[in-house]
Design brief:
Layout (H helix, E strand, L loop, with lengths): L14 E7 L3 E8 L5 E15 L5 E15 L5 E8 L7 E7 L5
Antiparallel strand pairs: 1-2, 2-3, 3-4, 4-5, 5-6
């Protein structure tokens, strides 16, 4: 998700920590540079709900989903990509932003 024109502006992680939530569908990854400082983070989260077409058989549908990836740039700001889906009937809306702080 990192745009090609930004590749030379970000710090490259040397190793990663991966975290997974067991009770909900959520994952997080943090990448660290040579100084053991975070320089990359990513997470995804999906919340589902039960739905039915006939009130007899139920199935899960996406109620909310979020995907995020962020890279620390060489000037210490963070380039953030976030994609949000509000329901199974809408397409994901993604956008980039720049922040002085790492997203949590």
């Amino acid at each position: 998700m990192l745009p090609a024109r930004w590749c030379d502006a970000v710090e490259v992680p040397l190793y990663f920590e991966h975290h997974k939530e067991y009770e909900i569908n959520a994952r997080r990854c943090i990448g660290y540079d040579a100084d053991d400082q975070p320089c990359f983070t990513a997470h995804n989260y999906t919340q589902t709900r039960l739905a039915s077409d006939d009130d007899e058989e139920f199935y899960e549908v996406v109620a909310y989903a979020e995907q995020l990836a962020a890279w620390r740039m060489r000037d210490e700001r963070w380039l953030i990509f976030r994609s949000i889906t509000a329901s199974q009937c809408t397409t994901a809306r993604g956008f980039y932003s720049i922040s002085p702080d790492m997203p949590r």
